[in-house]
Amino acid sequence: MLVANILALSLLTALHATSGICKLLSLPRSRALQLHEKRDVIPLGFTLAGPASPETTLKLRIALVQNNVDGLLNALNDVSTPDGADYGKHLSKTEVEQYVSPKADSLTAVNSWLSANDLNATKLSPAGDWLAIELPVSKANDLFNADFSLFTHESSGVQAIRTMAYSIPASLKGHLNLVYPTTSFPDPSASGSTFVPLKYIKRVESDSSSIPSPLPCGNGTTPACLQALYGIPTTPAVNPSNQLAVTGHFGNIAHYDFLQQFLIDYRPDMNSSTNFTVVSVDDGSNDQSAPSVTEGDLDIQYTVGLATNVPVTYIAVGMNYTDGGLDGYLDMINYLLAQDSPPQVLTTSYGFSESSISQALTNNLCNAYAQLGARGTSILFASGDSGAGCTANSTAFAPTFPSNCPYVTSVGATQGFSPEVAASFSSGGFSNYYSTPSYQKAAVAEYVAQLSGAGTDTRFNVSGRGFPDVSAKGDDFRVWVGSPFASYGTSASSPTFASIIALLNDRLASAGRPPLGFLNPFLYTKGVAALTDIVAGNNTNCNNQGFEATPGWDPVTGLGTPDFAKLLAVVGL
């Protein structure tokens, strides 16, 4: 009997150290608990280091079930669809919160459960659908029938405490949406200066030592190059209420003196003292003594430097949570939702691998973007710089978040000029979480019809939400970070496209009209006539696998690049 017990214990230990851990964790310790979320295998690159210390304090977030998400999404569609009766009639903060505030019985059930377990919750979101609690690992394991363990990403060294499964009381089903961070793992690239992707940056010689080219883009991508390519006006914006916001994550700094020198060199027609505002989320800092890691400076220089005189705000998101999770994303969007007058345009140059995040958490964040879109904000995200996205064995492509979300505008990249072609690094593909939204079904179907064996190709999901939606130049951007650098990536394309939308909003405001808000229903209907289709190039950098740019929408450059004059025309100005 002793030998049998030892063998059983050894077997249990071995199972705990493999991806089979989830099977053990899925067995409830109490009939009062029901499995709520689980992950079948440990994410690629992570290994189980062992159980987390029982005394370690976990900072967990609880999402409550929102009362009418379908109503919110219908309202978003109504205010965003051109020629609709409610187009442009964006919702107020109060109206949005009425859709997403938890029902009274949900609040009672969750708060009673927390109180019974001696836990105090802090409200995190303006609608009250997110709460925060703190408790030791030992208590969390008992409360959620979980096994919080320490996982290490082998190549980056990133460590995170996560569980492969957790349960909640049966009485909370329909009231408690999810607990985070539990089964969502950090993206390993979060430990660098960019998320997805790892941007290629090279130093270039000072422009003053080079021979000037008569071509607008002959000396790299500058504001003059982009103004020439896309017809971006230099006329200053005149409406101070028209705001453009840039998010900065993971310690990325935007330097005031670097911006000033950038304007002197590349926008000599602007006042070189033109600046931006900084707000802090999660104790974020825009410490001017910190060294540049390019992203913050790139985003600010190409919003301030293109959206002439549009007020720009840099949202510095702190690093209170250092394992690369989504806490900063949650807090940033909740910060904006709490504002009475959020910015009309938001651009973000960071993202995650879709598969690293649970679908429940992805849904919650995506619905938060829908809330902001319904209030009139155009939300743009860089699609990523990993092409179609390689997995370890290259049997499937890897879509990115938040570009997979149907309620944001994903921006891919082009390269070159006369003509532009798809940038090989431009991420694009099809979501495995979201089906093709109605606004892009016709465009995506036309592309899929060209693919050989699309219905049986297991590398991607042709019935998924396709991205990117649009694109803009993403190569050889000249950035001033103490000396001139050249930067490559969709993280340059997104602030470029966002600046164009901000300038359009300024013209709309002067005409007494609302901002464009959620862009995609407009882009895939009226807007497509104001975009230049990119028909050459590909993102086949995944062992020579990927997608080709073709006539019409494609999962490399989307619908194409902007033409400001044509966009003005299609919005009726």
TrEMBL record:
It is found in: Secreted, Extracellular space. GO terms for biological process: proteolysis. Residues 220-573 form the Peptidase S53 domain. SMART domains: Pro-kuma_activ. Its cofactor is Ca(2+). Binds 1 Ca(2+) ion per subunit. It catalyses: Release of an N-terminal tripeptide from a polypeptide. SUPFAM superfamilies: Protease propeptides/inhibitors, Subtilisin-like. GO terms for molecular function: metal ion binding; serine-type endopeptidase activity; tripeptidyl-peptidase activity. It is an enzyme of class 3 (hydrolase). Keywords: Calcium, Glycoprotein, Hydrolase, Metal-binding, Protease, Secreted, Serine protease, Signal, Virulence, Zymogen. Residues 1-17 form the signal peptide. Ca(2+) binds at D533, I534, G552, D554. Pfam families: Peptidase_S8 (PF00082), Pro-kuma_activ (PF09286). Gene3D superfamilies: Peptidase S8/S53 domain. Its EC number is 3.4.14.10. Its main location: secreted. One of its GO terms (cellular component) is extracellular region. The active site is at E295, D299, S491. Secreted tripeptidyl-peptidase which degrades proteins at acidic pHs and is involved in virulence. This is tripeptidyl-peptidase II. It comes from Grifola frondosa. The lineage of its organism: Eukaryota, Fungi, Dikarya, Basidiomycota, Agaricomycotina. The gene is sed3_3.
